[in-house]
Design brief:
The protein is an alpha/beta fold and 633 residues long. It folds into four domains: 54 residues, ADC-like domains (N-terminal domain of TfIIb, Single Sheet), CATH 2.20.25.90; 137 residues, Rossmann fold; 204 residues, Dimethylsulfoxide Reductase, domain 2; 91 residues, no CATH class. The protein is 35% helix and 13% strand. The chain contains 23 helices and 20 strands. The strands form six sheets. A seven-stranded mixed sheet has the order 5-4-18-17-16-6-7, with helices on one face. Strands 11-10-9-12 form a four-stranded parallel sheet, with helices on both faces. It has a three-stranded antiparallel sheet with strand order 1-2-3. A hairpin with a 2-residue loop joins strand 4 and strand 5. The longest helix is centred in the N-terminal third of the chain and has 19 residues. The N and C termini lie far apart (70 Å). The protein binds ligand MGD (2 copies), iron/sulfur cluster and molybdenum atom (MO). The site of molybdenum atom has 2 residues, from loops.
Amino acid sequence: MTTRVRHICPLCEATCGLEITVDGDQVVGVRGDSDDVFSKGFICPKGVAVADLHHDPARLRTPMIREGGQLREATWDEAFERIRTGLGELIGQHGTDAVGVYLGNPNAHNVTSTFYLPALVRALGTRYRFSASTVDQMPQQVALGLMYGTELSVPVPDIDRTDLFVVIGGNPLVSNGSMMTVPDMPGRLRALRARGGRLIVVDPVRTRTAAAADEHLRIRPGTDVLLLAGIVHTLFAEGLVDLGAAAEWIDTDAVEQLRDLMAAFPAGVVSGPTGIPADEIVELARTIAAAPSAAVYGRLGTSTSALTVAGEPSSFATLASWLIAVINVLTGNLDRPGGAMFPLPPAGGPTTFGEPGRGRGVRVPGSQRTRVRGLPSVLGEFPAAALAEEIDTPDPDSGQRLRGLITVAGNPVVSTPDADRLDRALQGLDFLVCLDAYVTETSRHADVILPAASPLARSHYDVVFGSLAVRNAARWSPPVFDLAQGERDEGEVLLQLAAIAAAVVNAAPEPTPEQMDDLVAFEVARRACSDPASRAHGREPAELLTAVAPRRGVARLVDLSLRSGPYGDGFGHHPGGLTLAAVEAAPSGIGRPGCPRSCVRPPGESNWFRRSWPRRRKGSRVCSTQLLCLTLS
Ligand SMILES: Nc1nc2c(c(=O)[nH]1)N[C@H]1C(S)=C(S)[C@@H](COP(=O)(O)OP(=O)(O)OC[C@H]3O[C@@H](n4cnc5c(=O)[nH]c(N)nc54)[C@H](O)[C@@H]3O)O[C@H]1N2
Ligand SMILES: Nc1nc2c(c(=O)[nH]1)N[C@H]1C(S)=C(S)[C@@H](COP(=O)(O)OP(=O)(O)OC[C@H]3O[C@@H](n4cnc5c(=O)[nH]c(N)nc54)[C@H](O)[C@@H]3O)O[C@H]1N2
Ligand code: SF4
Ligand SMILES: [Mo]
């Protein structure tokens, strides 16, 4: 007998709702959930393949430990015991900075990671934190963080209302979008064209998105920063600057400063290096300014590309990301319907916490430096490009180096630069633990591999992507299947690792995973009570925890987050507000309450700005030095 179960696809940022047909322990069909409030039936081939992933015989089902140079199957107890000893020896002899972490991309798609990874990283107490972010979107996070105040202050294109969508270095028809959670890009682009809107793509390659565009500007790789400076220059030169809703948040002095900074980049000057004719650059600036609404959007091509300047490879990714945001501001498209708008995530996120208009902002560069090259940390982590050298280059005096590593859902041997060197460096580690679904190029070097269970055997809620979504919606998926025999929930595994780390680092008795879960829940409740923006502000954590009992695990954490979040029931103070129970009762999700279109944050609610652009923390840089060196070269 078959049954149909709804589950959010965890495989990319589009977060489509799937309808999975199940017969016993088999998936017999996967299609888009046409009732899903957010994705409305869209699915891509990768989503269909979630069944193959679930049934893949190569997916690990048991822990593996290294013995006599070979990986062999092991019990969970054996694996954790090996980790206790391994971490104990390393940290006991060399301190907490002897062990680092690398966190891969799928963590963003896994609610257990959202809540429990921070517990593990905190327990380890290491300054060696690496992730896929620094080979992906970090420049965007830095630029937008400096402008808008948090590590996830991302205005996303209001794609369904825009008149002009400008995509720079992204291929959303193929990637299904990134830093913009948007199911059914093909449908949304068709709708854009049907209502008379336009799509302009800036990409060196004629991608599928470029081919579908009204206009494709073939830019020379790495030169976007110049094109963008040329656009800003033109906006000023032609008197096209109109700040719109953002005006009240912006220093007029800063706008003047920006005009001066951009004086060196008229279209005629940037045309040569970018390979785009000057009149096309001017026309692009005019088109953006003239559109009733426009959203300029940059993605991987702008956040990872580089350029050789004066013989040195230089990345202008942060500056390019900043200029993209600046263009949205200067053309009045920030917080305008059809422009770039901030989502209002139901489970909360960095932009919903704290008092609007105030905050500490982000600190760039961070306070830490890598040992070998002295590279600065940013938003709490080091660049992944520095991982190999921190392992394979011992300090000449002390012999100090990174000796142990824990990877969670990452494959840095494939995804980070100079992979061959990292491949060799990992072999030189004293201890490597990988939490992964497969034996990969990275995990094949592990002393212990802890298997990640099938994504269909866990609950799902997109906490992270709520902060990037083009529509606000709350959707919860219970597991489609029970864990297979011998499998463990990834959340429990993370909590067990955190418990081991806490015991080793503090030389204290090891807490149980349940105790760790209670600690995390208390922390979520405590923050909800102390946060002035929370609907539970001023309450007691114990009261909140009683209200969500007997839930445990991520369900408890999501319930706490939803109920204290911007649409929450405030634990009774906002009757009719969101609770996890309400979301559970709506298997295809709940759109923004009270709004039939569940738009991104309604226009005019501009109080999400933590700090006004472009006032910066003293000593921080938005790469203006790079701009200078470019002018000089
Ligand atoms: N050359 C090149 N390099 C790139 C990119 C590129 O396009 N080209 N793209 C960059 C980008 S955008 C990114 S985001 C990074 C990605 O960098 P990484 O995240 O390091 O690489 P992935 O290949 O996504 O590795 C994900 C790993 O997680 C495992 N995994 C999958 N699901 C789960 C799960 O539920 N739990 C656990 N524990 N493990 C799981 C997979 O088996 C895989 O080993 O790579 C970057 N590097
Ligand atoms: N099927 C599938 N989908 C995925 C992923 C996957 O692995 N497989 N990965 C997901 C992840 S982690 C991410 S981050 C997203 C990425 O999503 P996108 O950024 O939309 O996709 P990319 O293919 O990385 O597109 C980058 C584009 O930038 C262009 N480009 C390269 N250099 C430059 C440059 O200097 N300037 C400009 N203007 N353009 C340049 C490239 O030609 C390419 O078209 O995709 C996600 N979607
Ligand atoms: S677009 Fe992304 S979320 Fe949607 S089905 Fe495909 S992989 Fe899954
Ligand atoms: Mo990515």
